[in-house]
Amino acid sequence: MKKIVIAADSFKGSVSSLEVADAAEAAILKNYPNCTVLKIPMADGGEGTVDALLATSVGKEISCKVGGPMGHPVHAVYGILADEKTAVMEMASACGLTLVPEGERNPLRSSTYGLGELIKDALARGCETFLIGIGGSATNDAGTGMLQALGFKFLDSKGQELPLGGEILGEILSIDQSAAIPAFLAATFTIACDVDNPCTGPRGAAHVYARQKGADDQAIERLEEGMKNFVDVVKKTRGIDINTIPGSGAAGGLGGGFMAFANASLKPGAQMILEALNFQHIIKDADLVITGEGKLDQQTSMRKAPITVLRAAQQQNIPVIAIAGGIQDILMLNSLGFLAVLPIIPYPVSMQRAMEHEFTIDNITRTLDQLFRTLKYFNTSQS
C-alpha cells in the first residue's frame, strides 16, 4: 500500500470526522509505515461542514454575533477558505433548532435573519462565493429574514414593510430590492440540500417539518397558506416557480428563497464538499479509500457521504472500504460497489457504551488493524 485516502463522516454523538481519520491512520501506519495517508474530513452539509472544509484549507474561522432564530443574540461561526473569497457556513449556527428551547419554538415568529447577517459580514470581508449547509433550521420563513438582513423589503397591501417571521408570508404583496446589497446579488451560492421537498403541498415545508419546529395544526395551515402566497408572489415578480424546484422547501423554504433571489444552486451536501475539496484530484493514484459513518444501511444510498465518496472513487477504479458502528443490509451495500463494509463493535454492548468516545476510537483502530494485518500478510507472501 503506497497511498490510502480516508474520507469518513463523523460518527455522530461519538467521534468527529477528523478523529475517525486519525484512528484509521494509526492502524494503517502500524502495518504500512511508509504509506502516504491523506485524511479528508467529510460532512453532509450539516454539522461539521465548516470544520471539514477548513481542515483541508489554510483558512480561518470567523465568530460573529447575530440575531438568533427568535431574535435573541447568538454567537455564530463560519469559515473563510484560503482563497479569501470563499465563505463556508452552516445556517444552523445562526438559525438552528437547537438554539431555541423546546417550549419557545415557534416557526411563525422565528426567522433566518441571522444567516443574512453572517452573509453580510462575509461580503464585507470580500467573499464572493458561498458554500452553505441549510440543515437543522428552526425556521419556516422561506428565507425572507435572510433577505431582509441583506436589504430586501417585503411589503403588504398598504405598501408597509413587514416584520420578521414565517407569519408574514401570507401578507406579502410585493418585494422591494432597491436597497439590496449589490455584492449579494453578484455573489455565487452553492446550497447543500439533501432533501427534495417543494415549498408547498403534503410534502412541503410546513406539513413535513413545521411541527418539529413548534407549530400546531393551526400554525401549520397558516404557514402552508403563507408559503403558497410567497410562491405566487415570487412567480409574478421574478418569473420563477420555485415550487417546481426539488429542495425548494428545505429549511422552511430557505432553499426556495435562495433560488428566487440569489445566483444559487442546490446540491447534495457531500457532493458540495467533495467538489470544493477537488476530491477527484486528491484520490488520484490511491490504492484504497476508506469511508464510513455511524450507521450504514439502505439510507446510505441516498446522498450520504459514504455513497458520494464511493461514486467518486469508482470513477477512477479505486476500491472503497466502509466502516460503521452499525451495519444493516450488507448485501445491498456490497451491491452498491463497496469492496467491504466492516462493523467496528467487537461484542454486544449497550447503545451508550457503543457511542463512548474512546471506545469508538479504539474500535476503529482495532478493526482496521486486523484488516491491514491480513492484507500485509498476503502481500508479503505473494511477493
Polypeptide structure, described:
- There is one protein chain.
- The protein has 383 residues and is α/β, with parallel strands linked by helices.
- The protein has 2 domains: 3-43 and 278-382, 3-Layer(aba) Sandwich (Rossmann fold), CATH 3.40.50.10350; 49-267, Glycerate kinase, domain 2 (Alpha-Beta Complex), CATH 3.90.1510.
- Helix content is 39%, strand content 19%.
- It is built from 15 helices and 13 strands.
- The strands form 3 sheets. It has a 6-stranded mixed sheet, sandwiched between helices. The chain has a 5-stranded parallel sheet with strand order 2-1-11-12-13, with helices on both faces. A two-stranded antiparallel ribbon has the order 7-8.
- α1 (17-31) runs parallel beside α15 (357-382).
- The two termini are 13 Å apart.
- The model has no long low-confidence stretch (mean pLDDT 95).
- GO terms for molecular function: glycerate kinase activity.
- InterPro entries: Glyc_kinase_flavodox-like_fold (IPR018193), Glycerate_kinase (IPR004381), Glycerate_kinase_RE-like (IPR018197), Glycerate_kinase_sf (IPR036129).
- It comes from Pedobacter quisquiliarum.
- Keywords: Kinase, Transferase.
- This is Glycerate kinase.
